[in-house]
Structure formats: structure tokens, C-alpha cells
Amino acid sequence: MTIRSTSSHLSINRKAATRPAQPPAMTLDGVRAGINYLPVDLTIIKGTTVTAFGNSSDALSRLLDTIAGFYPLLGGRILIGSEDVSTLRAGKRGIALVSTRDPLFDHLDVRENIGFSRRAAGIDRSEIRAETGRMIALLGLDGLDGRKPEALTSEQKLRVSLARALMTAPAVLLLDDPLSRLDAHSAQKISSLLATLSRALDLTIFHAVSRREDALRPGGPVAVFQNAVLLQCADAARLYEHPASPEVAIAFGEANALTGQVLEISDDVARVHLACGGVAEAVATENLKEGDECLVCVRPDRVAPFFGTQSLGMDDDLPPLQGTLAHSLHLGDHIRMRVRFADGTEIELRRPPLQARQIPKTGAPVQVAWPAAHATAFPLRTDLY
């Protein structure tokens, strides 16, 4: 069962050529970071933040280490601006990396940690003192400059690490999931700080994260990876509404995935007979044909439940999706429900808390539906299961 929508449906794989307003700060041209890694192609425009979100923190760490020069490049090129830095050693590429694997020096205080790289480079002490003072103010570390790392919170330690990295005035700042060890409030504060730094310093950031909320906070493009494979890079709205693959829909959009067979395709909308029973509609991706087995992906917040005995089906050829309420949980800002169909398949729904009084007890019959424009039908690949 599908809720009809008056919105027009466009093929999600049609690409519009656009010319970037700013020059690229970093270009990954067929970069291979490991023997079994596929090439990565990615361009980051100067002054922007691109977040890398993936299911393998090890693969993203390896990619960032390779970009920074700590691992050998096994293929492709790394360009900073128009300069190929692929053969330059770490520290000479105009790239700074902040990682939880690179802790502060325990025997040095905050000011000494921040200025360490400049002292190692033989910079004049007075210049180091001035630059360090500027970084302390910029990173909100006033009054902490004499403390050792053991006396700092996790958030303060990260601020010191950021200051230390920025002392080198990098063209690109790489962040290897530094928010993962912070609580939600501290992570939000650091995300706001990074946005401020990006604007104030015209800073380009490539930020690897393992949590979806951390990927969304910067508000810029998100590069979705599966292991070491770049699946799609786009803003959050496009990733949600027009995922390039089922993996993107499921990993980033947390979509429900239902198998079925395409009955017909009209105006880029596929009518699908679902294996769990009922007929639904979804935007058809390229290469999907009538008669194909497919995977319909729809996000939990796009599925509407209907409780009651009256059938939503318009005729016998369009049976609704009928199931039972398996579970419901009020989480404050939304209600999470699970609906089980006759074949045992379950999907998740998320509804506004205002609908709490409308939700019956577990085991009650329920019908579900969604607008065709809010679901996507992909050709079924055997390697997904």
C-alpha cells in the first residue's frame, strides 16, 4: 500500500554538472590506501568540511594516515591545491592529522604541547610564544596553559590537540574520529568550535566519524564509505532522499529494506509486490525493469501506521501491507515502533510523540503505507544478503 504523492519523480542517478565556486584544497585521484582497497576519488573545496562516515573505523583511519603520509600510497595521487604531494613525507604535505592514536606529551604542559612542532622546527621562541598564545585564545584554553594533560578533561585534551595541529597552518586538517570519546554535550561543543575555526581560518577539514550524528553536525557534504569503498558523497538531504545504493540508504538513512518484484514502472515510479505481502510504490532507480526482483528502501520516519479494522486497499489488486504491532517505545522526541508481517519480516517506524495516545497495545493489527516519493527501489543484488 502506498500513499499517492503529487510530487514529480526524477531518476536519482542523473547527474548535473556544476562548477565549484572555490578551488579545490585537496584532491584524491584514484587513491589506494591498501592492497585490497578500491581507488578513492574525492575533491574537497577550499574552506569546506567534508565528513567521512563509514562502517569501518580502521579503513577510514588507514585512508587518513595514507593521506597524511604515515602509510605508503599504493596507487593514485594526492593533490593539495594543484601540487602533487604523494611522494612527500609526513609533515611536508601541508596536512595536519588529529587522532586519538596520537596523544599529548604527558611531561609537557598545555603551552609546551601546543608549541612542540614549532620548537622542533627551530622557530624563534618569541614567535612561538605569540603563536601559542593566539591558539590558546582561539581554542578556548585560557587559564589552562600551565596544566599537564593528566589534569585536563577529554574535551580539553582535544582542544589542545587541535591547537597543536593548527600551529603548522595546514592547508587541510584531517580528523580521525576525535569526537567518538566525548559525551554528547562535549561533542556538540567541539563541532561548533570546528565550524567557527573553519570560518575564521578559511580552514579545509576532512573529518572521519563513526557516528551518524557526528556526520550530520557540520552541515556539509558527507562521504559515505562501506569498508574502504566510497559509495556516495553528497549533502545529508540528498543522501536521505536520493541514496545511490541500498548500502547508503541502510547505513546512513537507517532505512527499512524490503524485497519484492517489480510489477510495472510508470513515470520513474515502480509498483512492487512485496515478499512480506501487499503492494507498494517507490522511485525506480536506473536499470530497474519490470519483472526484476528488487529491494525497496524506506526510512522509518516516512512510514505511516494505520490502526483499525478498515482496509486501506482500494481493490483486490492492491492489497495493503498488513501486520501486527510487535513493539513500541516512547523515546521523548519520537515513538519507535516495530511492525511484524505474516512472513516474520519486521520494519521500524518512528512517529511524533503527539501520536502516543493513538498507539494501541502490542499485538494490535496495523496497516502501513508511505508516499512513493519517499521510498527507493533498487535492483536486488545477491551480495547484499
Q: What's the number of extended β-strand segments?
A: 21
Question: What is the fold-level CATH name, i.e. the topology of the largest domain?
Answer: Rossmann fold
Largest sheet: 6 strands, mixed
Shape: elongated
The radius of gyration computed from the alpha-carbon positions, rounded to a whole number of angstroms, is 25 Å
- Under CATH at level 1, the class of the largest domain stands as Alpha Beta
Q: Class by helix and strand content?
A: alpha/beta
| Overall pLDDT | 90
What is the oligomeric state here? single chain
Number of domains: 2
Distance between the termini: 25 Å
The fraction of residues in strands falls at: 25-35%
Poorly predicted regions are: 1-20
Instruction: Tell me the number of helical segments per DSSP (H or I, 4 or more residues long).
Output: 8
State the helical fraction.
10-25%
CATH architecture descriptor text of the largest domain:
3-Layer(aba) Sandwich
CATH superfamily of the largest domain: P-loop containing nucleotide triphosphate hydrolases
One letter per element, helices H and strands E, the order comes to EEEEHEEEHHHEHEHEEHHEEEEEEEEEE
Write up this protein.
The protein has about 375 residues and is of the alpha/beta class. The chain has two domains: about 25-240, 3-Layer(aba) Sandwich (Rossmann fold); about 255-385, Beta Barrel (OB fold (Dihydrolipoamide Acetyltransferase, E2P)), CATH 2.40.50.100. The protein is built from eight helices and 21 strands. It has helices at about 55-70, 110-120, 125-140, 155-165, 185-200, 210-215, 235-240, 245-250; strands at about 1-5, 25-30, 40-45, 50-55, 75-80, 85, 95-100, 170-175, 205-210, 220-225, 230-235, 255-265, 270-275, 280-285, 295-300, 305, 320-330, 335-340, 345-350, 365-370, 375-380. Strands 1, 16, 17, 18, 19 and 20 form a six-stranded mixed β-sheet that branches. The chain has a six-stranded mixed β-sheet with strand order 7-8-9-4-10-11, with helices on both faces. The longest helix is centred in the middle third of the chain and has 18 residues, at about 185-200. The radius of gyration is 25 Å and the shape is elongated. It starts with a strand and ends in a 6-residue tail after the last strand.
